[in-house]
TrEMBL record:
Membrane spanning residue stretches: 26-45, 57-81, 93-116
Species assigned in the record: Geodia barretti (Barrett's horny sponge)
Cellular component, GO annotation: Golgi apparatus; membrane
Record protein name field: Transmembrane 9 superfamily member
Signal sequence segment: 1-20
Family: Belongs to the nonaspanin (TM9SF) (TC 9.A.2) family.
Length: 156
């Protein structure tokens, strides 16, 4: 999605002179990319032997957007409390909510419907039916420690 927005900006469709064009393009693109996201999510769900495509579509349509919409709405309360001009008006939040349920939701369910009707993804290799033993790792190779050590320098 970011790559598409950058290409739009390179071709001059998003100008710094038009305020809000970048954010509008990002929101509109996010609404319409839900169909592609749910199409691939449904095919992956079918590959992993899932059977209830509607549950997967509902999770695709709500889990990520509702988390960030809820956080934005919650943080906007604090901005409203300070009577700041940078607060997003309630009508704009309501319009975003209507676009989410009116545009994104049906597109996600449509993409999921068509994705679940397709063949599941083919696995590139044949899996062995005999499970292998995974040896116990030493404590310093655990992902918590191995991921923490290289990133310690980032903390001031």
């Amino acid at each position: 999605m970011i790559l598409i927005i950058i290409v739009f900006a390179m071709f001059g469709m998003l100008s710094p002179a038009s305020r809000g064009a970048l954010m509008t393009a990002a929101i509109v693109l996010f609404m319409f990319m839900g169909a592609a996201a749910s199409y691939h999510a449904a095919r992956l769900y079918k590959t992993l032997k899932g059977s209830d495509w509607k549950k997967g579509a509902l999770l695709t349509a709500t889990l990520y957007p509702s988390t960030f919409f809820g956080m934005g709405f919650f943080l906007n309360f604090f901005i409203w409390g300070e009577h700041s001009s940078g607060a997003v008006p309630f009508t704009t939040m309501l319009a975003l909510l209507c676009m989410w349920f009116g545009i994104s939701f049906p597109l996600v369910f449509g993409g999921s419907y068509f994705g679940f009707r397709k063949q599941p993804y083919e696995h590139p290799v044949r899996t062995n039916q005999i499970p292998r033993q995974i040896p116990e790792q030493v404590w310093y190779l655990h992902p918590v420690f191995a991921g923490h050590r290289p990133n310690c320098w980032q903390v001031p």
